[in-house]
């Protein structure tokens, strides 16, 4: 029976690869006559990753392991969506502004958290945005992004 | 003495009293709500503290910290779900008490124990932190290096059975801290030509990601808990015998809490379980634990609130956080221009002594609000997390933005939120990551300075008595962790 690659084994392999990449990236960093050069700590980290990655793999090479399911596709979709929403928000808020874009983000998040009441959701999104806008922009003078598309 | 008088005068100004009240009440509410941790509570305050005086900001943060540590016991007792991780041990006896219709007694026990733990640890804070700061003023760079290494070896202790994973997490934290321009010689590391990476990652962005956004992502997976019928809270008052019975547990919890709090990278969860186990071990009536013993609630709550004072000692005196919450507080203070460490005591004694006075005010506010919390708890606990979590997410975005008014920091927070999520899914502890981020640069910069001053003489590590002490402590820490891990493996 061939060894099963459980998650920890895969992570161990990833950690080893990361360690190797770090060591490669330190090639060309200057050495210094006094003190420790900029490459020393990265190399300590790189070598340590390789050693720890190997230990993690050795701890998990087990032919009979039955691993519990870590992810479900349903949950991964939500995580992916919230991440994409977050980055889209960061990109577009510079142009559309906090006041106009945030209600859409809140409404989307409410949906992701299974809040299904649309009318209440819209009211909550707009209401929370207005409260936060008044609080941070008007009272605390935080320079929240404003509309600048045209 | 003058500083104490100034401290009293400032702390008792009506505005500051109001801020302390808001912070403490906010902390109790945050702590009571499962899914929102003490760290998240601190993070949610970041956009607000920027516009307060440093002394006032520090008191608000401390109020949130202390309040949330107590607040976690409310849902632990009423719902059987710890509001904060450090209230997990409170569930063991608190929830059975709630089921027996004694939730009021349990909550009041938690209030009294939290108050006592906070007050007693406050005295430790007042006496120990200036002493530690005075000693730290004599630290040379090599002493700071060895202290940082000792702090990093604590990673081994807090990783439990996941020693390898803890070390990987800690090293990842060090790796993250290396991104950007190297401190001594200005060499760019791991920036890949991206201008934003030249300044590295802001600590607060990482903390917001790892402790707030990660929690939100974890909550996204959980189904909404069915609202249990919350029994009316009655039978509030403790009898004299019951009060006497919780005195020793409070003392045990406080001593362990302060001690654990002082050690970097530990925190309330470790302290409460340790205190509970020790009390049970020495108790003549072991069988009552787990079935609704007031002593069980008392020891846990005094421990987790004593941790708050203990963890503030190294944070204020050395600039090294005692636990993850003080790590977030450290980040928040740096944001507003306050640099904790030995120079804080000599440079800003007004701030320090105002904080000392305010600490006790916080405990009294927590006592009063805590006794009232039995009445308002059912309303707090009905708040739907479906509505709460999106609002918390937006507040995290604002918090990350206010660090430098830069959208890049929001992106960093999101990325670290994802990293934290995957780490949690695969049982990688998060505390070592933060320890690595904070202590890595301290270790590197101070080792560099020490070697430059000593002209590459590495023996200074053992020639300096303070450094040697930390080296010995580090070795003990590693050996102890390895032995504990092997013993647990055999069991």
Q: What does the model show?
A:
The complex is a heterodimer of chains A (150) and B (491). Chain A folds into two domains: 7-60; 73-139, no CATH class. Helices cover 67% and strands 0% of the residues of chain A. Chain A is built from five helices and no strands. The mean pLDDT of chain A is 87. With 491 residues, chain B is mostly helical. Chain B has one domain (2-490). Chain B contains 22 helices and two strands. Chain B has a two-stranded antiparallel sheet with strand order 1-2. Chains A and B meet through helix 1, helix 2, helix 3, helix 4 and helix 5 of A and helix 8, helix 10, helix 18, helix 19 and helix 20 of B.
Number of helices of chain B: 22
Percent range for β-strand residues of chain B: under 5%
Sketch the major β-sheet of chain A. Answer: none
Helix coverage percent of residues of chain A? 55-70%
Separation, N- and C-terminal Cα atoms of chain B: 55 Å
Count of DSSP helices of chain A? 5
Radius of gyration of chain A: 24 Å
Please give the largest β-sheet of chain B: 2 strands, antiparallel
End-to-end C-alpha gap of chain A: 65 Å
- How many domains of chain A? 2
The secondary-structure element order of chain B is HHHHHHHHEEHHHHHHHHHHHHHH
- The proportion of strand residues of chain A reads under 5%
Provide mean pLDDT of chain A, rounded. Answer: 87
Largest sheet, spatial ordering of strands of chain B: 1-2
What best-fitting shape of chain A do the alpha-carbon axes yield?
flat
**Helical content class of chain B:** over 70%
Listing every helix as H and every strand as E from the N terminus to the C terminus, the arrangement of chain A reads HHHHH
Question: What is this entry, summarized?
Answer:
The complex is a heterodimer of chains A (150) and B (491). With 150 residues, chain A is mainly α. Chain A contains five helices and no strands.
């Amino acid at each position: 029976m061939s060894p099963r690659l459980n998650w920890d084994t895969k992570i161990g392999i990833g950690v080893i690869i990361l360690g190797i990449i770090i060591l490669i990236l330190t090639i060309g960093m200057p050495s210094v006559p006094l003190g420790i050069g900029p490459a020393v700590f990265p190399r300590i980290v790189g070598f340590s990753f390789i050693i720890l990655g190997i230990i993690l793999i050795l701890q998990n090479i087990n032919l009979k392991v039955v691993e519990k399911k870590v992810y479900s596709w349903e949950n991964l979709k939500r995580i992916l969506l919230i991440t994409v929403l977050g980055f889209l928000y960061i990109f577009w808020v510079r142009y559309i502004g906090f006041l106009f874009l945030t209600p859409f983000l809140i409404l989307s998040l409410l949906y992701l958290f299974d809040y299904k009441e649309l009318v209440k959701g819209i009211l909550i999104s707009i209401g929370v945005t207005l409260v936060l806008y008044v609080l941070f922009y008007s009272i605390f003078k935080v320079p929240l992004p404003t509309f600048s598309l045209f | 003495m003058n500083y104490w008088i100034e401290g009293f005068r400032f702390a008792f100004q009506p505005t500051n009293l109001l801020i302390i009240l808001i912070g403490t009440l906010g902390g109790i509410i945050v702590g009571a709500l499962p899914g929102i941790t003490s760290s998240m509570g601190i993070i949610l305050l970041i956009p607000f503290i920027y516009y307060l005086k440093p002394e006032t900001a520090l008191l608000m943060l401390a109020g949130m910290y202390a309040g949330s540590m107590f607040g976690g016991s409310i849902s632990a007792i009423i719902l059987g779900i710890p509001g904060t991780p450090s209230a997990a041990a409170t569930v063991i006896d608190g929830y059975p008490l709630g089921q027996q219709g004694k939730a009021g007694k349990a909550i009041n026990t938690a209030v009294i124990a939290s108050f006592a733990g906070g007050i007693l640890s406050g005295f430790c804070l007042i006496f120990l932190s200036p002493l530690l700061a005075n000693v730290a003023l004599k630290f040379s760079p090599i002493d700071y290096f060895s202290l940082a290494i000792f702090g990093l070896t604590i990673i081994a202790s807090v990783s439990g059975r996941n020693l390898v994973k803890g070390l990987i997490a800690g090293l990842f934290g060090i790796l993250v801290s290396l991104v950007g321009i190297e401190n001594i010689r200005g060499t760019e590391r791991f920036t890949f030509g991206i201008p934003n990476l030249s300044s590295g990652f802001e600590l607060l962005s990482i903390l917001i990601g790892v402790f707030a956004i990660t929690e939100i992502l974890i909550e996204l997976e959980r189904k909404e808990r069915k609202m249990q019928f919350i029994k009316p809270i009655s039978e509030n008052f403790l009898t004299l015998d019951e009060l006497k019975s919780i005195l020793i547990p409070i003392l045990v919890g406080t001593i362990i809490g302060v001690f654990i709090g002082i050690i970097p990278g530990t925190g309330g969860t470790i302290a409460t379980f340790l205190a509970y186990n020790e009390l049970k071990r020495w108790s003549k009536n072991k069988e009552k634990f787990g079935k609704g013993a007031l002593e069980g609630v008392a020891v846990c709550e005094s421990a987790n609130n004593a941790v708050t004072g203990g963890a503030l000692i190294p944070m204020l005196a050395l600039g090294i956080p005692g636990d993850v919450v003080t790590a977030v507080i450290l980040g928040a203070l740096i944001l507003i221009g306050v640099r904790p460490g030995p120079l804080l005591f000599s440079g800003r004694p007004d701030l320090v002594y105002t904080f000392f006075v305010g600490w006790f005010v916080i405990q009294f506010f927590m006592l009063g609000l805590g006794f009232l919390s039995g009445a308002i708890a059912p309303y707090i606990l009905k708040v739907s997390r479906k509505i709460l979590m999106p609002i918390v997410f937006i507040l995290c975005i604002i918090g990350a933005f206010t660090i430098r008014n830069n959208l890049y920091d929001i992106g960093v927070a999101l990325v670290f939120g994802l990293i934290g999520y995957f780490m949690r899914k695969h049982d990688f502890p998060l505390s070592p990551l933060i320890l690595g981020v904070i202590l890595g640069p301290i270790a590197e910069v101070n080792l560099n300075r020490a070697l430059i001053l000593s002209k590459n003489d590495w023996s200074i590590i053992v020639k300096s008595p303070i450094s040697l002490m930390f080296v010995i402590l580090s070795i003990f820490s590693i050996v102890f962790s390895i032995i504990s891990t092997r013993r647990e493996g055999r069991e």
